[in-house]
Design brief:
The structure is a homohexamer of 250-residue chains. Helix content of chain A is 50%, strand content 15%. Chain A is α/β, with parallel strands linked by helices. In chain A, strand 7, helix 8 and strand 8 form a beta-alpha-beta unit. The interface between A and D is large, with 52 and 51 residues.
């Protein structure tokens, strides 16, 4: 019976969902089935932290549902790693994985100096905060493209060229030996870049996918699942039922 | 015309709301009017990070409404400082203040070694994370009471004694010269403790109140308001209207 | 009865004292009276740390005197924050506030990435040290004007333009969302800059003023005054009297 | 064709090698074949950093050989993570994984506060140094058993009980939500402990195994292999041949 | 011609001065002559930071004088390292050395985990601040004797026993491999302790002496003297003369 | 009887050994005799960490031998500070000193902002790691020459000019007040540079020499030798003999 992974496309259209689902399936390991689900909303993107609030209940409800449906791991598809702690509080068997955390962990294992390529300065304070929180601040530098997330979807060719330029500069001027593409909307660019630059270029969607597979495996084989003791402790059972009810009603 | 401050009681009963409102009014500076509003929900407390998600839209809607009503500052009433960045993105004139940030800033100005008294270990990872993020980690230590937030409301006398004990130990064994009460539900205890221990004991509700007054003043007098440039940049106008609509519907 | 604040102009002429006094009065909150006192000496400025030594006794004597005269807060008027700990040891009721600490605390509450504009490289090591000590090093960057403090007084127009240029670069190249003017002699420039750049520009003289008012209030209303327990512990009474004597004789 | 993993038992007897090989095979994922090879020497253990020097050439020669034989990943079997950078310089296709790095990465993804259980104080400075280097120092605490590595092999039952005691204390007194067993000789104990304590207990041998599988997969599927650009840059080709020659002669 | 070193006894009696001078002479290297000079004042000790202010001018005047008299290095005799930057600004050929900096540098070269033994909690915040500033915070822990500096002079035997006890605990409970005696008044105790504990015990008076000799040598032989470029830049010549005048008059 | 110091030339030719020996002798203090010994191998340089492995046994054997021959201090001649902990484990009376540690300690005592000039990016990750480990990361910046170690030996004049250029830029653009030449092969350049730039320029070979003399003296005079308690604990006597045997056979 294959293990099932669920990628939450937190914003976008059905077409976008489908595109990322196909992308994920192309790279999934044998024995894993991937599904992408769209959190429907009227949000254009997730550049603003407040936008998450508008879909938070939907996301958590879907997380709870996914665990009940038997998914072995879920991915929160945004490089801000939104709702990661919240989702982990609500699950116990299903792993929950997030793109920035997965990307930085992987990058830090592959090289010494990591450059994260960001869309624009708006993204910088939160990603720097995550780099500090995850423990990698001494080895991370940043490059801003001056592009918003919308550009990432509508002007793929121009974006691709800008990303390549930024990555080249990172390698030359900042001695980066790993580059991280700092937005899930930048998926699909890593391969060509990696070949050109001869260093690993981390695609955050695939980094999440691989960590989802990994956490699924170590959970299943060794019982290494999120500690439910303090940080990710769940509400007590009776409260939890009540909370699940609350999540149902928008 | 008095400046108006709004305290969001994020959980609890109407009676709790009233109690905290009275408490705040007792300590408000002349020229400030304080109101406390309750975010109604079926949540018993906010010990779990996921609980915030269930009320996030309500909180942000109320934040937006409060700015429109002309409040000069708002306080997010929980020591986890939930939704602080989100709320600041959505406001520009009205200051938004949070208890842990306010308390640690104040404490760090009053002494060198700060002990934060927490309810129980569940609270520890998030508060440690905030202490790191706000810049005070080298000077902060923690003491856990082994009590949950519910206890704070239902067993005031016993809690008071336990807090006093923990504070005494902090002073003696850890050389604390400031104590921070690390939960908004611990309001009302600071005075006696402070007299006994002869060091400042920070009440997070009042620390927020005072910072709210302070931010209100520097905004009004000097134009020093939250920078809207990167971290707290708001969505563009047309998106914002759409977002306000989204917040209306639960 | 109004609360009285005292600003120590640590160097300069009677005319300079008067100018800063007027400036402070223009921005003081109702209920506060501000006075500026000049520490007279033959020093041209305070760029060199050793210069403080030459006036240290005078400053501390004036601090002690000010508390006795009933001032509620005093400001040490130099961005190096000189004698802050010493002054706090010698006071208990009167708050003592310093410009760099006040400015960085305020800036860190208003934005994420702070650029401090310094006169010249001489100022850099001490201010970096203070940024580390106060907890904000991860979020602070520096820009040097290549100007000495004397220039700040004698070539105001040229300095103003240089400061504006540096601030613009900080915003563009370093994604600063708050700018701090890193010398008390740069007072008076914040307003125009702030309007041009659309981000908060912190004037260290006014940041001190506002924190002085703030500390005065929390002391009076809540008893939150400098902890006298370890860091700011005062000499025992009998020693103190002797010490006050010593301060009298130059 | 199965992927082949190689575990270097860096010290011990043929019996020890066999035991760890069996242990690894029990936990290897389908599609992976595991082999353990013993670096033969007269060393009793690797508690002393100088001991590594005595086998360094042997280890690196075996690493080079392993890559040529087509292994997809190799594990350096000691919690000091010896020769990790050296081995990565000498390989390009084969991943090289080390127990402390693998364990801390995994632990940091499963919880917030990590306690590492060490044999004795001798081990502490190096492991603390690794925790700093890998980025996890703020979340890590240590407990020493007062036992040397020899004990781990000869007094398994007593050691097991001591480890359990230390882990219990970590959970109770230090609020650990993940425990890491800080020596490869402590393999085999995690399961019972984990069941008793209800938090993840990381076995460093298995953490390495799982990271070896993981790095093998991301290398194969996505080309994410150790960056050969700066930190792990290999000697130029002609030098490398010469170096391989040097490794041959003891 | 011997190199001459000057130790500033910053407080105490002529008898104390003589005692420390003899102590220093006993340990001075051949080729070095040591003199101790007393800064006379009515201060009983230097436990309070404000006390330094009362003698700052005297100290700096003596520093300037010492350089003119041809001393090759001077030691500021207090573990708070008072006036270190100020004194270095005013000198160029003569090295200036301080006990805490010298002790921590030496200790960090001799072991991994350093315990500093302090008189009482008053001393703790400043010494922690210095440990952070000098770069050793991750490796330093503290033990307080609960004794004031006066005790150090008047109850030598009792103090000696308390220090020994604290050092033993540091070694046993905190795995210290170096102990630093955190007050210049604790001089003379290191030898017996060191023999008992079998680890280096740093006497801050002698650590300063040895660093003074060292800095004298590298200055003389290699021209490695305090950089006069930014941190320790001196006032311009004309200002300096004026300043020297100021120092003359108390 | 003179104290004897031993510099290990870890790579190069007999001519190189002789050159460095003469250089060291020129700068040695009276009372010290210096000898340089070459670790012979087929290695061209030590730019790659794996290269150390090939000579590790030889180095340690020579270290042990040197202590037996009565040397008072030994220097490991490579800026990566290779085998420092290993060598210190194996010695007790003889001090062991390394160039990067010695240079950074000295530089941090002479100024505030340190720029390390590196050959090329390959050297950067390890030296950054050492700067973090030794405690100086907040004050250190880096400049890469884009030259390999071979260039340092074969194109001295061109290298000298490039180093001077880099140092000038460090002083101007990064406000460096101390420059460290980050490779032992850059010895001999400091003097001219230092005179030109008017700031200390640290030669790592001579920094090691001076620290070797210093550690020799404090060991002899005060018994302050490497703590043998945890970090540098040696193997137990019987194991040690066995280990010495192992070192003998290549």
């Amino acid at each position: 019976m294959p293990r099932r992974l669920l990628y939450f496309k937190l914003v976008g259209t059905e077409k976008d969902r489908k595109a990322v689902e196909e992308y994920l399936r192309r790279y999934a390991s044998p024995g894993f089935e991937v599904e992408a689900r769209l959190i429907k909303s009227r949000l254009p993107d997730l550049e603003y932290h407040c936008y998450i609030a508008a879909i938070a209940k939907d996301v958590l409800r879907e997380i709870v549902k996914a665990e009940r449906e038997g998914f072995t791991a879920a991915i929160l598809g945004c490089f801000y790693d939104p709702l990661l702690e919240e989702a982990r509080e609500l699950t116990s068997k299903m792993a929950v994985v997030a793109p920035c955390q997965a990307s930085l962990h992987l990058a830090s294992l592959l090289g010494s100096s990591i450059t994260i390529i960001l869309g624009r300065e708006k993204h910088f304070p939160k990603i720097r905060e995550l780099a500090v929180k995850y423990g990698f601040k001494d080895r991370v530098s940043f490059k801003c493209l001056g592009l918003c997330v919308e550009d990432f979807y509508t002007r793929r060719e121009a974006v691709k060229e800008k990303v390549a330029e930024a990555a080249r500069q990172a390698v030359e001027a900042e001695a980066a030996d790993v580059v991280v593409l700092g937005c899930t909307a930048l998926y699909g660019f890593f391969k060509g870049l990696q070949e050109e630059l001869k260093i690993p270029v981390i695609d955050p969607v695939l980094a999440s996918l691989k960590y989802a597979e990994f956490m699924a495996l170590v959970g299943e084989q060794l019982g290494w699942r999120i500690s439910k003791r303090s940080c990710y402790e769940a509400p007590p059972r009776e409260e939890l039922e009540n909370f699940h009810e609350m999540l149902k009603f928008p």
